[in-house]
Design a protein that fits this description.
243 residues, alpha/beta, Transcription Termination Factor Rho, Rna-binding Domain, Chain A, Domain 1, 2 domains, six-stranded parallel sheet, globular
């Protein structure tokens, strides 16, 4: 039957890791506090944030100590319990730790949207990406994205790239709403949504553990070894330096 779908990671695969860590994350961190002053979470999101925050008392202690100078008008006993006032500092902390947390990813996406639309941000994708996507489309292969960033953030990266608007080449986008990227169930969920046998899907990533999870359900896998990528443990998957 052959490959009918390409499932592509972003960071370290179609876009440099440096773009995400040196441009996107610092931009979100810089703007998150003023953004959240005006933003109102739904009750469901607030409950989700509170639940995550209250899981680890030592984490709350670390947040308080690292933010004490910013929050010096409050006492420790007042700040350690969850409140809407702690959310900006909590989210700053999560950005620093590169935590994959849905509500944070949602807010980052909204902040980046403002940056892209104002022209402050232009995304960087590898120069071989547009031609690769175009060739896939010409061969009847559908392109899809699977990234830990929110779907909104994924779309923005391809919409506002320095190489032009690449959205026309993608059929669908998946984030961690389908599950974690190192969990094979996530890839089962994607295959179901694509209504495709796993062996007709080729997954491109720079992380071996993600490749192993996808391959565990029968997906074809390619590891990308882009400049600046993190060295990976020994594995038997094919490795490409470029598309």
């Amino acid at each position: 039957m052959g490959i009918k779908h390409y499932l592509l990671d972003i960071e370290g695969t179609t876009a440099p890791i440096a773009f995400v860590h040196q441009i996107l994350f610092p931009y979100a961190k810089k703007h998150i506090v003023p953004f959240l002053r005006e933003y109102r979470f739904s009750e469901i999101r607030l409950n989700e944030i509170q639940s995550e925050y209250e899981k680890d008392s030592s984490l709350r202690e670390e947040i308080f100590l690292s933010r004490f100078t910013k929050l010096e008008t409050k006492t420790k006993s007042e700040l350690l319990p969850f409140s809407s006032e702690i959310i900006p500092s909590y989210f700053e902390y999560l950005i620093e730790k590169d935590r994959k947390f849905g509500p944070l990813k949602e807010i980052q996406g909204k902040i980046w949207k403002q940056g892209y639309e104002s022209g402050e941000i232009k995304s960087i994708v590898y120069p071989d990406v547009p031609e690769f996507l175009k060739k896939a489309e010409e061969e009847g292969i559908q392109n899809h994205v699977y990234s830990s960033g929110s779907v909104e953030a994924q779309i923005l990266i391809y919409q506002y790239s320095e190489l032009g608007d690449l959205r026309k080449y993608f059929t669908s986008y998946f984030d961690t709403a389908v599950g974690g990227k190192r969990d094979k169930v996530s890839y089962e969920n994607i295959a179901k949504q694509l209504e495709s046998p796993p062996n007709q899907i080729r997954f491109f990533t720079d992380i071996v553990e993600e490749a192993e999870a996808a391959n565990a359900i029968g997906m074809d896998v390619v590891i990308l070894n882009r400049p600046g990528n993190i060295p990976q443990k020994s594995h038997s998957f094919p490795v490409w330096d470029q598309f």
